[in-house]
Amino acid sequence: MARHIYACPLRWSDMDAFGHVNNVVFLRYLEEARIDFMFTQAAAAGAGEFAGGSVVARHEIDYKRPLVHRPEPVTIETWVTKIGVASLTVAYEIKDTDEDGRDIVYVRASTVVVPYDLAEQRPRRISAVERQFLSRFTDEHGVDESVPAQKDEAAVAVA
Questions:
Q1: Would residue 145 count as lying in a domain?
Q2: Residue 111: which H helix or E strand, with range?
Q3: Which secondary-structure segment (H or E) carries 134?
Q4: Residue 36 lies in a domain
Q5: How many CA within 13 A on the CB side of residue 87?
Q6: CATH number at residue 97
Q7: How far is CA 21 from CA 103, 115, 134, in A?
Q8: I want to staple 33 with a disulfide (CB 3.0 to 4.6 A). Which of 13, 22, 76, 112 is the partner?
Q9: pLDDT, tens digit, for every residue of 83-116?
Q10: Does residue 1 sit in helix, strand or coil?
Q11: CA 81: distance to chain centroid?
């Protein structure tokens, strides 16, 4: 399983009154990492359908420790934990690595993403090309093998 790595810049405006990154800002960090993963990397791999739209159905965030502003970016590792018919679950760790090589985890999170056809204004199924791309970032337990690959995704209606 591979993980997508995103170097997320920190901004002064991300801080709250206590001098650390505000909890709400972490949602934007997750969005930035997800966009880099699903739009930039997927498009480069030939799975650019995500650029046609997606919506977030759910976020779960576990805050582990405060992140203090500094000029260096923070690392966000992104991977896929589940691929269904018309949704996928993306997991994240926002972290640094200390001098001894140990991870300092600030946030662990997950997002349920639904591919969305903006022109038709409705959810759509995950295409075979998208499934192939996403599978590179998950283990065999995250892929629903009972979901057949669709030959003509544009003709498939999502219930």
A1: no
A2: strand 103-117
A3: helix 128-135
A4: yes
A5: 11
A6: 3.10.129.10
A7: 18, 30, 30
A8: 76
A9: 999 999 999 999 999 999 999 999 999 999 999 9
A10: coil
A11: 10
